[in-house]
Design goal:
Helix content is 43%, strand content 22%. The chain is an alpha+beta fold and 565 residues long. The chain folds into four domains: 152 residues, 2-Layer Sandwich (Beta-Lactamase); 162 residues, GAF domain (Beta-Lactamase, 2-Layer Sandwich); 55 residues, no CATH class; 160 residues, Heat Shock Protein 90 (2-Layer Sandwich). It is rod-shaped and about 145 Å long.
């Protein structure tokens, strides 16, 4: 080819179509018989045929010869290539929008003029499938004749990897402070990069598979479900595998064990275990309605995305821990406020009574009769007893808040503890002429902390006496609740009174630290509500529950449960 031929126009000829245009020059290599070839030409022919890249020889913009790799790369026979132009194997436009015909001529003209060209190009195989290539054009001389040599390297895999990396970087830049939102972004990225029918991130929670991230999946596709038989669970279970992939799903056991396979006509699957720290917790997966074989880049990127999901899971765990600590701190602040409220208000009241009556007796003892002095002393004694009980509850409650309460569960007879409480509370009951007795049978064995149960009973009986009118009764009763499937046997203890009862709207507030429920007793006894709050915390430590049942004017029942020994 000489520099005079630059005016030749290129025309696009469909791949495989017959081209009757004359070839300007025959292959110079074929004119040389082997005995006449010099060493350089023999070496060139050897390199030409054994190269890993496609190599073409051109003259007047048309192919004169090509090596075996060219036929493989373009999916052609030799006759499909010889005599054709490069534009016959190119789309009308290149990715940058330039016309392939004009741009190809520009590159070849520059190479013929002595300027070597290296550039990226989109070619078409014979079946019309495009692929990215790196093309190197150089002018060479063979047998004294000038030719153009084109070396073509398929860089589709590299371009695919670059594009996947670009999308991954864009995804990371779109992250927010919400880990769940980010997990959904990563799940979507997985499906888009792999060209999947849909993609999911399934988390194993409480023995069920739950979808925390979904992209393009139909409603009901692997929601909360038992993991047995699901591919997603097998990915988690077989977490030693780098990437778990399954082809021809209808021919596998999953066609029966995983209802999604038949329901959505799934053909292929790829998944990667997601770890939070070192613990396998879920699987990132993509499913296909066509046959799919992951290549090295697909395996790399699903692993990369799964690692990013694991990082977001760790962030979510840390975020949840912060929220939990914040809730605990708020509860502690409420407890502190309640504590100081009791100290400033409820503890001060009884002391005012003690100090007031004792001041009267100290200053004016001789001015009062014996009956009057006994009245003052009884008031002092009552206030001192109330203050002592309040201090007991305050100290126990404060210890419970700091976690310093020693929890020592053991088997003991509940009837013995109930009798002790009846004896302890007999005096305040007799003052109001209230009948106090226990109906708990001897040898009612429970497994709990004995001191805590004694404190609970003392508080409940004290409250029952406080809100029962003169001549009423307070009973301590119990019944055994047999064990059932998955639930241990319990003993239900009830303190029942014939008192004034409680409004329904107050029942739900009785055991809450942030609710101030203060009601004077039938003899104007003062209360703080702290005793019931302490009872709730102590019974929770003993794996039981506590509740109240009441109707105004119909008395009350305060009940709690403890495990059977």
């Amino acid at each position: 080819m000489n520099n005079q031929d630059k005016s030749i126009k290129l025309t696009s000829i469909p791949v495989g179509a017959e081209d009757k245009s004359p070839v300007s020059a025959p292959d110079p290599l074929k004119k040389i018989t082997p005995p006449l070839m010099n060493v350089n030409e023999i070496t060139y022919r050897l390199l030409f045929e054994t190269a890993h890249d496609a190599i073409f020889l051109m003259n007047e913009y048309r192919f004169l010869d090509c090596n075996t790799k060219s036929l493989v790369m373009f999916g052609c026979e030799r006759e499909d290539i010889i005599g054709k132009s490069p534009v016959n194997f190119s789309p009308p436009l290149q990715p940058d929008g330039f016309d392939s015909t004009l741009k190809a001529k520009e590159k070849m003209d520059a190479a013929i003029g002595g300027q070597s060209q290296v550039f990226e190009w989109v070619h078409l195989r014979k079946d019309g499938v495009p692929f990215y290539a790196e093309v190197s054009l150089n002018a060479i001389t063979l047998n004294g004749v000038g030719h153009l040599q084109a070396i073509v390297r398929d860089i589709s895999e590299r371009k695919k990897s670059d594009e996947q990396l670009r999308k991954f970087s864009e995804c990371l830049l779109s992250f927010t402070a919400d880990p769940l939102y980010n997990i959904n972004l990563l799940t979507r990225l997985c499906g888009e990069i792999l060209g999947a029918t849909c993609s999911l991130y399934n988390r194993l929670q409480d023995g069920l598979l739950c979808s925390l991230g979904q992209w393009n999946s139909p409603e009901g596709f692997i929601g909360e479900d038992n993991p047995d038989g699901h591919i997603c669970y097998d990915v988690i279970n077989n977490n030693d595998k780098e990437v778990y992939s399954v082809a021809n799903l209808p021919a596998t056991p999953y066609f029966v064990s995983d209802s999604n396979v038949a329901k959505y006509n799934l053909r292929s699957y790829i998944g990667k275990v997601v770890r939070c720290g070192s613990k396998p917790i879920g699987s990132l997966c993509a499913v296909f309605q066509q046959d799919y074989q992951p290549d090295m880049h697909d395996r790399y990127f699903i692993s990369l995305i799964a690692s990013a999901v694991g990082v977001e899971e760790e962030r979510k765990l840390a975020h949840d821990e912060i929220l939990r600590y914040a809730a605990e701190l708020q509860e502690l602040n409420q407890s502190k406020d309640k504590f100081f409220s009791i100290i400033s208000h409820d503890l001060k009241g009884p002391f005012n009574a003690i100090l007031g009556f004792s001041d009267i007796l100290t200053a004016d003892w001789n001015d009062y009769t014996d009956d009057e002095r006994q009245h003052f002393i009884r008031n002092i004694n009552t206030s001192a007893q109330n203050t002592y009980r309040l201090l007991e509850n305050l100290l126990e409650w404060a210890l419970a808040q700091t976690g310093k309460v020693t929890f020592s569960p053991a088997a003991f007879d509940l009837s013995v503890v109930a009798n002790e409480v009846v004896i302890l509370m007999r005096e305040p009951a007799e003052k109001k002429q209230i009948k106090l007795f226990t109906g708990i049978n001897f040898n009612t064995m429970v497994f709990a902390d004995e001191n805590m149960i004694r404190t609970i009973l003392r508080n409940l009986v004290s409250n029952a006496i406080k809100f029962t009118c003169e001549g009423g009764d307070v009973k301590i009763l119990s019944k055994v609740i047999p064990s059932t499937a998955g639930k241990p046997g319990m003993v239900e203890v009830c303190v029942r009174d014939s008192g004034i009862g409680i409004d329904r709207e107050l029942l739900s507030k009785l055991f809450n630290i942030d609710e101030k429920v203060r009601t004077n007793g039938t003899a104007n006894e003062k209360g703080t509500g702290l005793g019931l709050i302490l009872c709730r915390e102590l019974i929770q430590k003993n794996e039981g529950k506590i509740w109240a049942e009441s109707e105004p004017g119909q008395g009350s029942r305060f009940c709690f449960t403890v495990p059977v020994a």
